[in-house]
Amino acid sequence: MTPPEQDGKILAANGICRVLASFLPQEALETPLWPATALAAGLIVGSFANVCIHRLPLRQSVVTPRSRCPACGAPITARDNIPLLSYALLGGRCRGCRAPISLRYPAVEGANGLLYLGLAWQLGPTLHAVVMMAFTTALLVLSLIDLDHYLLPNVITLPGIAAGLAASLLPGPPTPLGSALSAAGGYVVFLGVARAWRGLRNVDALGEGDWKMAAMLGAFLGWQQMLLTVFLAALAGTAVGLGLIAFRGRTGQHKLPFGTFLGFAGIAVVFIGERLVAWYAGLLHG
Ligand SMILES: [Zn+2]
Q1: CB atoms < 10 A from the CB of 213, how many?
Q2: DSSP state, 152?
Q3: What is the Å distance from ligand 1's center to 69 Cα?
Q4: Which residue positions in the chain have pLDDT lower than 70?
Q5: How far apart, in whole angstroms, are the C-alpha atoms of residue 106 and residue 122?
Q6: SS3 state at 35
Q7: pTM metric for this prediction
Q8: 276, part of any domain
Q9: Are residues 156 and 118 in the same domain?
């Protein structure tokens, strides 16, 4: 006989294990090569994402020239450009001038690596997983560019919409029609909200970049998960906005980059959106 309190603990532990196991499909456990490859690819693509975040808003090429130290201008050699490892070995400083390198570079690399590892686990070795990897990296890049510049470049959002529509031809949701309607719907709703907001408050809360980003989210995710993304982004944006006002007073009331919230919410929805939508549908239908 185990005391009832211990029974409860065993039940809870079993429950937690079952939830964790639901994130790990059997095939992912059987083929450790796939998650390992995904992690490595995620780190390398994350390194390229840093270049995109830095150069796309400045309308510079992401291919040439080689990356340079922003302090001394020395080109960064291949051996100093290994994701995470180089940063650690160099102690976060330029080899030439010892100027500190922003912690954001390894953070973006590491985050992108973890995203790919998570997707590899959750979706298995599928084309769908690869599509979602590209999608989450695009969202990460858009989020950080919007944070820095209040800008969501067309060179990401427009091909992003096209890629989302093309990806809907693969098996699984959304259907091609659903993807196209969700993209159009996202664009039109954001445009409408922006116009209404300008009419009511005379402020531009949502720029054209946000309309296109909403279309891209709709094309990839379908309308239910797109709405969930917008809802979570608005919730997070409101929380951060109120937090800034609380800490900094009215001076904290400056414009927030909504694309940043949309991007991070979109990434969350890629992982938990299906479960949240199913849970919500269960609530409605009892
Ligand atoms: Zn330097």
Answers
A1: 31
A2: -
A3: 5
A4: 1-31, 250-254, 286
A5: 24
A6: helix
A7: 0.86
A8: no
A9: no
